[in-house]
Automatic annotation (TrEMBL):
Major location (coarse): other
Localization per Swiss-Prot or TrEMBL: Cell envelope
Stored PROSITE patterns: PROKAR_LIPOPROTEIN, SBP_BACTERIAL_3
InterPro entries noted in UniProt: Iontro_rcpt_C (IPR001320), SBP_3_CS (IPR018313), Solute-binding_3/MltF_N (IPR001638)
Database matches in Gene3D superfamilies: Periplasmic binding protein-like II (3.40.190.10)
Residue span, Solute-binding protein family 3/N-terminal domain: 46-265
Protein name: Transporter substrate-binding domain-containing protein
Signal peptide: 1-24
Domain Ionotropic glutamate receptor C-terminal: 46-264
Amino acid sequence: MKKRAKWSGILLSTVLMGSLLLSACGSQASAPAAGGQASGDGGKKDFTYAMSGVYKPFSFKENGQLTGFDVEIGQALAEKMGMNAVPITNPFETIIPGLDAKKYDAVIGSLTVTPERQKAVLFTNPYYRSGSQIFVQEGNTTIKSKEDLKGKKIGVVKASNYLDWAKKLTDEDKITQYDSDITALLDLPTGRLDAVITDQVVGLRFIKEGGGKVIDVGEPLSFDEQAIAVRLGDQEAVDRLNKALDEIVKDGTYEKISQKWFGRNILQKQ
């Protein structure tokens, strides 16, 4: 009887210990996905920010790690706000609905400020400036400006500002939508496309890195401002991010990140 009582005590202790461990794990797993929750980093709150993750050099995977200009800007802003940076990837075509659903606190994903988007989100001050540019295969002499795109096959990223341009310049059945600008640019030499409309900075870096025999043609279709998006009504977040953005510009952090990725300051008008 004493022996049985001894083993019963050990079994009861083991069960209690397991219950405590499961309770602890359950507490961690139930933490919300976004909204400034406390993290394990010295009690700092998380700053969760989204991007597509397939928009090199702004956000992309390298050796399994998410990196790029947008990622580093988010990290610098989080540091100024005293928060823990948590970059998140989300398909670009659903990135604003994801913000609205509170999957993350902000979008630092090269969102061009447009009147339509201003109805859906609040924007901060611009964090970089660029333009919409036409790119074609090297040696293409039939496309020299936007007027030459009628009836041509154009590649653009899904739900992007460039899709709107393509619809104005060619027939809708001639438009191919991609998850990534780089994939679209790589299709130019294959003959699947006659042109790609994308961000000027993205295309020029693609050319610089030897991504293919591609050239830019004509004047930029537009000069755009990209800003950070937060949910409608969250003016406090806009003010906090604008303050942090001003600080990284003034202390040289922005210049350092921009020079690293583009060899120039892409906030300044060229």
